[in-house]
Structure formats: C-alpha cells, structure tokens
Amino acid sequence: MQGLDQFDDEDVNGTVFRDVITLALCGFVAVVILLLPHLNPKQEAKAAVASTVPGNVMIEARWADELDSDIDLWVQAPGDVPVGYSNKSGVIFNLLRDDLGRNADPTQLNYEVTYSRGVPPGEYAVNLHMYRNKSKVSPVKVTVVTSVKKPNSESAKQILTSSVDLMVENQETTVYRFKLTEAGELVPGSVNSLPKPLRKWRQ
Predict the structure, then answer these.
(1) Partner of 70 at 20 to 30 A CA spacing, among 87, 90, 109, 154?
(2) Gyration radius from the chain CA atoms
(3) What's the whole-model pTM score?
(4) Sheet strands (E) in the chain
C-alpha cells in the first residue's frame, strides 16, 4: 500500500506541474491574440481615419498671436453665399471659428479657417476684413493659405498662399480669386486679386 501511495503522489505532482505550464502557455497565447489588432491595424481602419479630413477646400488665415486684432476671413464658393463671421455656413463652406483676437481665446492663437463640402467647379473668392484693431498696430500682416483635398485623395495639397497688409479698421480686401476644375485642379491663369465685396451680412 505504501508503494502505491508514493506512486500516486508523484503522479499528482506531475499532473499539477503540467497543468500550471499549460495554463501559463494559454495565458501567453491569449495576451498575444489580444494585442495583435493593436500592433498591426487593418488597412480598412487606416482608410477610415484618412477619410475623416473635415473638408475638401481649406482656406486658412493667420496673423501674429501677440496682436489683439479681430481679422475676419470671408470666402465664397461658386454659386453660394459669402461665408464669414456673421454668416458662418453656406451650402459649400463652413467657418470653423470666428477668432476675436485676445477676446475669449484660450489658445492665444490668431487663426481662422473654413472648410468646404466637396469641390464644386468655378470661381472662389477669398477676402479679409479688419473688424477691430485694439493693438493699434499698423499694418497687420495676415497670411492666407488655400489647400485642396481631391475627392479620391487621402491628403490635402496646398495650391495658393499670399500675405496681405491690413492698415485700418473696417478695411476689406480681396486676397485672391481663383477657379477650380471638377477634379479639384487649379485652372491655369485664373488667380487674380480683383476686388469682390463679400460682407453683405455685416451690418
């Protein structure tokens, strides 16, 4: 009987050892399986992230952060209404934020941007308006950048940039007018700075 008891104890110890090793191995495999999707994201997920760019035509205005100046960006798409601080959306464009200079601005960045839905062909107009200049600095240099994300593209491409000096309050100036094709291409020779007042909702 004693011989049988010793044999049973050794068998139990071996079984426990094998069980512990098997459980540890299963736990390791489970951790690896859970981590795999995070180590190698699927291509569909990458495509979904790329498609979340907020618009097709992006027009940005930037001026010195230290200035307490309220500069308004006004844009107009073909066949649409002008979009700016008092009319923040049209059929095509949306103004993301009306920057008031240092007033109610937690980031201290002087920056306005508009985004379009789609790229309708035709002429676009981009204006700047100096609404207020509490800093009393003149001129206020504003840089405007226009980028286009074509319908089947994953990234936007900068097509135009220009700097404008605004001298006095209530001054409005056309930065540029340009034409785009249905494919989102800049029409050669279409860029000009012919004046086009856009602030019809200001009063």
Answers:
(1) 90
(2) 30
(3) 0.70
(4) 57-63, 69-76, 93-95, 111-116, 122-133, 140-148, 157-166, 172-180
Say how far apart CA 162 and CA 143 lie, in whole Å.
Answer: 6
- For 117-150, how does the pLDDT look when each residue is reduced to its tens digit (9 = 90+)? 999 999 999 999 999 988 898 899 999 999 999 8
Q: Give the H or E element holding residue 4.
A: helix 2-39
**Strand ranges, E, within 5-156:** 57-63, 69-76, 93-95, 111-116, 122-133, 140-148
In angstroms, the CA 142 to CA 165 distance is: 6
Both tokens of 126, joined, read 């981009």
Which candidate, 131, 152, 164, 181, places its Cα nearest to that of 53? 152
- The 10 Å Cβ neighbour count of residue 2 is 6
